[in-house]
């Protein structure tokens, strides 16, 4: 039997974490409510995003979409515009789709059954556990990035967490305080966020230090183990700011599925080997929009990093010449005045282009 399967150890871990959380837990806006919709929004926003960034978005979101039916009936453009800057836009699209599902299947009332919650777009085991434990005090375990790190150190995991997900879920399930799941899960997340941090963990302040195997073997800075990472691929992109004779700019909306789905952008594409930027832009615009343009002055060059790759956007003013614009590789097209650009949800890198255009 592993040490963490001992009932005395389990009880000690649960009690010490609860006492620590009651004294040291973070005061966060979604902690003062049991409204499952509010908690759901916070859980989704906190995926891949820091608390300090999330808080103002959380308040703006609930002000605009105070309940599930309102969110379900709202336009995707409005939703993405409010999400602008948070990144990982699939989260916003999934919130919208899930709200529509809750509205149609559950009369707008968030379900309390784990099986039903797991059918909602964008909700996996950890998000479901976070919502159900916080909103309804249900004994459902979690395993987000912070929790993986805490548990990996606790048991001195001898491989990267991603290769031991099943084992970590077993540990998470075993240690869950079924009498106080709300406090336990929130305490566990806070422990990872404030004490058991990725680098320089504050082990002397940790309520679990007595049992932590990584600390016992002085491995707390080496665990969790990491898999070797490859350098990020880099793409050179030609981007067109296309003007017509009425002083309008042509923008297109990306397909809903995939990277930056549903957002608007300035059209363009990847520069091929031995291709000039101007030739790339002309080719891409003909392929994507079916029109002829003249490439003019350089506007701005932007370097931007996504999770799995980096891009350099080479942005040029272009003049529309002929042809009827068609959304051959996008959802729709619009001619808009420069001052209207701020009304549309754009990827973060594109907002820098808008700033230069508008001045």
From TrEMBL:
Catalytic activity: Hydrolyzes free adenine bases from 7,8-dihydro-8-oxoguanine:adenine mismatched double-stranded DNA, leaving an apurinic site
Source superkingdom: Bacteria
Span of domain Nudix hydrolase: 232-359
Record: residues binding Mg(2+): 268, 288
The protein, known as: Adenine DNA glycosylase
Family to which this protein belongs: Belongs to the Nth/MutY family.
UniProt-listed Pfam families: HhH-GPD (PF00730), NUDIX_4 (PF14815)
GO biological process: base-excision repair; mismatch repair
Organism the protein comes from: Euhalothece natronophila Z-M001
Cofactor: [4Fe-4S] cluster; Mg(2+)
Keyword field: 4Fe-4S, DNA damage, DNA repair, Glycosidase, Hydrolase, Iron, Iron-sulfur, Magnesium, Metal-binding
Function according to Swiss-Prot or TrEMBL: Adenine glycosylase active on G-A mispairs. MutY also corrects error-prone DNA synthesis past GO lesions which are due to the oxidatively damaged form of guanine: 7,8-dihydro-8-oxoguanine (8-oxo-dGTP).
Binding site for 8-oxo-dGTP: 254, 265-268, 350
Stored InterPro entries: A/G_AdeGlyc_MutY (IPR005760), DNA_glycosylase (IPR011257), Endonuclease-III-like_CS2 (IPR004036), HhH-GPD_domain (IPR003265), HhH_base_excis_C (IPR023170), MIG/MutY (IPR044298), Mutator_MutT (IPR003561), MutY_C (IPR029119)
Cited NCBIfam families: mutt, mutY
Record-linked PROSITE patterns: ENDONUCLEASE_III_2 (PS01155), NUDIX (PS51462), NUDIX_BOX (PS00893)
EC numbers for this chain: 3.2.2.31
GO molecular function term, any single one: purine-specific mismatch base pair DNA N-glycosylase activity
